[in-house]
Amino acid sequence: MVKVADVVDKLNARVICGESDLNKEVQFGFASDLMSDVLTIDTENLLLITGLNNLQTIRTSEMSDISFILFVRDKKVSQEMKELACENEITLIECGYSMFRACSALCDLGLNPVY
């Protein structure tokens, strides 16, 4: 298990929504820009790593019970995305790393892949 605060520190990331959840832990990571692939995942304690920054990402996470989303490639969260995420208690994090670099760093940190 990896604390969300450690994810933020390791990636020099910014928390956009969900600052109160930084001491929670995630066990698995899943990286995808295809929300149809995300919908196939049935794993708890999951961090979604994506570069797709739109409302669909928040809605997909809500439907899949994903509480943590990391946006890579310096993608910015819109105000509408932030409001929907906060309403659904989803923590949003932004970082400037590529998806590959972020995944590599998170594996080094101890985050497990879904498969």
Question: Descriptors for this entry?
Answer:
6-stranded mixed sheet; alpha/beta; 115 residues; 5 helices; two-stranded antiparallel ribbon
Structural class of the helices, strands and pairings? alpha/beta
> Helix and strand string, N-terminal first?
EHEEEHEHEHEHE
What's the main sheet like?
6 strands, mixed
Q: How far apart are the termini?
A: 16 Å
Q: Calculate Rg over CA atoms.
A: 12 Å
Beta-strand segment tally: 8
Descriptive account of the structure:
Helices cover 35% and strands 23% of the residues. By secondary structure, it is α/β, with parallel strands linked by helices. The strands form two sheets. The chain has a six-stranded mixed β-sheet with strand order 2-7-6-5-4-8. Helix 2 links the parallel strand 4 and strand 5. Helix 3 packs parallel to helix 4.
